[in-house]
Every structure is written in structure tokens, then in C-alpha cells.
């Protein structure tokens, strides 16, 4: 499915942290470039963990990206001859993202979104549930649980060596210093109702 469809489409790559979502996004973007398709990559401005103007996987592979403040900027900055639009960390965008993604796909573009489907509480994250519902293709990736070695589908936030409370803020941009991949049975959320 890496070839450009005749009509526009939406692909969503989701999973917990450390499952390879950005790495897969970069792989698809590179294949589109090999096919001589014009690609634009976008990321939320707030995600500056590794580089302000690149999407980077935790293993270090990267690709140039345009940082944007809101979903509307993606539509405004997408050039008419772009055939593939890639969006990393989709969970951090506002609720307008599904409308923007639909508009791009309706105009004939292949749109690839990557993001966390669940927040650290184990609940649907931002615009991701809607993106999953409207996508033609969904790939849910797993990581390795740091406790059991089993497939991990949850992101565990760790604060001062302990699981974060349900009442902590949803968004905390971080990596291995703040998060671990966990299987369902090892995912802890103190104070969860």
C-alpha cells in the first residue's frame, strides 16, 4: 500500500510510545520520495524533543518537517503539487485536524498521520479516535513491555520513579526519562476513577 492511490486517502499509524510510529512514518515518506512524489511533513510546534524542524524517531532516524502551531496551518502550508502529506504526533493537534486531513484527502492527497492512540491514562488521545474512524488504513504498532517483555500497547508516565497520577496534566512532552511502554496488566494509573 506504499504506492500512491489514484484518489486521496488517509493512513493512520498508531500505538504506544516506543512502538516505532515515527520510524514507520519516515519509512513511508522515503518510499514516496523514491517514487518521485512530492512530500511535505508536518509536526506540532510544541514537540521539540530532538529537533525543532525534523521528525525524529527514538532510534535517531529523522526527516525534515515543518513545525506548525495548529491543524489549520497544515492546510494553509500544503503546496498544490504536494501528493503526500505526513503528520507526526497527531495527538497533539487540535480537534480541527480530522477536518483538515479529510479536506487534503478529498483533494486527492495521500495523508499519513502518526500518533499515540491512548494517553498515559489509557484513554483516547486528542483527535486520534476520529482519525482512526475516518482512515482507509490503520496500523496499530506495539512496543515491548519493560516489565514483562510482552507486547506493550500502553504508555506509562513515570514521575520521580513512580507512576503518574490520573490527575496530572495530559500533555508532557518527553521520552525515556518520563515514559515507558507497558502491557495492559502492567499499566498503572493511580487515582483513576
TrEMBL record:
Which N-terminal residues, if any, form the signal peptide?
Answer: none
Top class in the EC scheme: transferase
| Chain positions recorded as ATP binding sites | 15-22, 88-91
Q: Which InterPro entries match?
A: P-loop_NTPase, Thymidine_kinase
Keyword set, alphabetical order: ATP-binding, Cytoplasm, DNA synthesis, Kinase, Metal-binding, Nucleotide-binding, Transferase, Zinc
SUPFAM superfamilies the UniProt entry points to: Glucocorticoid receptor-like (DNA-binding domain), P-loop containing nucleoside triphosphate hydrolases
Protein localization? Cytoplasm
Q: Which Gene3D superfamilies match?
A: 3.30.60.20, P-loop containing nucleotide triphosphate hydrolases
Note the PANTHER family from the entry: THYMIDINE KINASE, THYMIDINE KINASE, CYTOSOLIC
**Which HAMAP family does this one have?**
Thymidine_kinase (MF_00124)
Protein name as annotated: Thymidine kinase
> Which gene does this sequence derive from?
tdk
Amino acid at each position: 500500500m506504499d504506492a500512491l492511490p489514484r484518489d486521496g486517502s488517509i493512513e493512520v499509524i498508531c500505538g504506544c510510545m516506543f512502538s516505532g510510529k515515527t520510524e514507520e512514518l519516515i519509512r513511508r515518506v522515503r518510499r514516496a520520495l523514491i517514487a518521485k512524489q512530492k512530500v511535505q511533513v508536518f509536526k506540532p510546534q510544541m514537540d521539540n524533543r530532538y529537533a525543532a524542524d525534523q521528525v525524529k524517531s527514538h532510534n535517531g532516524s529523522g526527516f525534515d518537517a515543518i513545525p506548525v502551531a495548529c491543524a489549520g496551518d497544515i492546510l494553509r502550508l500544503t503546496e498544490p503539487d504536494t501528493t503526500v502529506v505526513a503528520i507526526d504526533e497527531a495527538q497533539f493537534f487540535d480537534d480541527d485536524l480530522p477536518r483538515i486531513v479529510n479536506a487534503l484527502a478529498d483533494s486527492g492527497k495521500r495523508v499519513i498521520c502518526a500518533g499515540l492512540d491512548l494517553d498515559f491514562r489509557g484513554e483516547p488521545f486528542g483527535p486520534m479516535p476520529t482519525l482512526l474512524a475516518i482512515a482507509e488504513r490503520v496500523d496499530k504498532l506495539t512496543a515491548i513491555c519493560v516489565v514483562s517483555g510482552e507486547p506493550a500497547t500502553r504508555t506509562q508516565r513515570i514521575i520521580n520513579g513512580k507512576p503518574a497520577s490520573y490527575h496530572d496534566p495530559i500533555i508532557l512532552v518527553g521520552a525515556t526519562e518520563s515514559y515507558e511502554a507497558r502491557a495492559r496488566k502492567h499499566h498503572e494509573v493511580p487515582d483513576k476513577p
